[in-house]
Specification:
- It is built from 5 helices and no strands.
- α4 runs antiparallel to α5.
Amino acid sequence: MRIYHKGTITAELGLGIWAVAVGLASLRGHGYGIPIYWIAAGFAVGFLCIVWGIAWEMRKDKEPVSESALTTLHWYARHCPDAKALLRRTSHPTWAEAFAVEAQCRKRARHP
């Protein structure tokens, strides 16, 4: 399980849209009849998704986590002392705390 947030997913979607736009531009350069407005729209939508995703993450960093993320943290607490300590300290941690603890728990799981 991983803790994801709408901003992260949106920014990654924006990168995917940019990759498609680059692919379309490459195909147009090889002689395929792809209108330029599709390429421009891909770059614009991709850029907006990336910016919105980053802005969302920056705003949400200090807010309490969602219920699904809290469930994931409780699952981590069964195996990771860092998550257990975080949940003992506060019943509703912030997104920044949750991401930091998740990274520590994943690192601990890889290097026992």
